[in-house]
Amino acid sequence: MSAEPTLGEELSCRRVLVVDDDGALRELLTDYLELQGIEVVAADSGEAALRELQGPRPPDLVVLDIRMPGISGNEVLRRMKADPRLEHIPVAAMTGMRPGEFQLVAPPDEFLAKPFDVESLSAALTRMCGK
């Protein structure tokens, strides 16, 4: 009997940018994705996310908190979708706010309501980047 494939083996996205100002959640997501064989770059702010996105090696996918101080995830999403170099990168937006408490400036590819479990995260990533 063969072992179950890891999430990383099932995805075409090999490099993921995780953006959240909550250090504990950022670390949890990073650890989970790395255990699944996915290369993770973490950013603690919208500013750091934009620096990473403008770097020489943009990620294949972004997991993005919407509500952050400074440059919000909403603004990061808007800038990504307005940039021809970045607009194709899938984005999973996450927030603990309830519907009606926020309005997204651009539609993400997936939406994760906090708190969410790893099964929900895995399913969202598979829908965006499944082979």
UniProtKB/TrEMBL annotation:
Residues 15-129 form the Response regulatory domain. InterPro entries: Bact_response_regulator, CheY-like_superfamily, Sig_transdc_resp-reg_receiver. The keyword Iron does not apply. SMART domains: REC. The keyword Phosphoprotein applies. The modification 4-aspartylphosphate is found at residue 65. One of its GO terms (biological process) is phosphorelay signal transduction system. Keywords: Phosphoprotein. Transmembrane segments: none annotated. This is Two-component system response regulator.
